[in-house]
Amino acid sequence: MQQQIQFYEQKLSYEIDSSDLYKAIENNSDYVIIDTRQPSGYEKEHIPGAVNLPHREMTEETTRHFSKSKVYVCYCDGIGCNASTKGALAMTKLGFTVKELIGGIVWWKLDGYTTEGSHQTVSPTLGCTC
């Protein structure tokens, strides 16, 4: 049983869902949201306040201006894409504290949260039902 408890505790320390991220944004937590997709995806639609840094471009140079005291939340399209996992791995290797957004921008929208960009989604309802 202890192994299982450790597994779930570790999972929660490395992942975040849309509802928890939204609450963290509302509470002005020290989270920085990173869209790990290419600029075309980011320009089309992204989570409000997110910065675009494609996972392939994550280096000491491109992250030099990032604070190591913040938590970085990486996301991509969703469960059919692993750009957020690649980004989370790269940021962790660079010495940052990182979480991965479960379900990416797809689940962000399914949970009723608004996006920004040329094809933004404005949702009339907020919140997941979990």
Explain this structure.
With 130 residues, the chain is of the alpha/beta class. The protein is 35% helix and 15% strand. The chain is built from 5 helices and 5 strands. Strands 1-5-4-2-3 form a 5-stranded parallel sheet. Helix 3 (39-44) links the parallel strand 2 and strand 3. The model has no long low-confidence stretch (mean pLDDT 93).
What would a concise description of this structure say?
With 130 residues, the chain is α/β, with parallel strands linked by helices. It is built from five helices and five strands.
Provide tags for this entry:
130 residues; alpha/beta; five-stranded parallel β-sheet; 5 helices
The secondary-structure element order is HEHEHEEHEH
Overall average residue pLDDT: 93
The major β-sheet equals: 5 strands, parallel
Q: What fraction of the residues are assigned to beta strands by DSSP?
A: 5-15%
Q: Largest beta sheet: what is the strand line-up?
A: 1-5-4-2-3
Low-confidence stretches: none
Task: Give the CA-based shape.
Answer: globular
Distance N to C terminus: 24 Å
Oligomeric state of shown chains: single chain
Radius of gyration: 15 Å
Helices, strands, pairings?
Blueprint: H1 2-14, E1 15-16, H2 18-26, E2 31-35, H3 39-44, E3 51-52, E4 71-75, H4 83-93, E5 97-101, H5 104-110
Parallel strand pairs: 1-5, 2-3, 2-4, 4-5
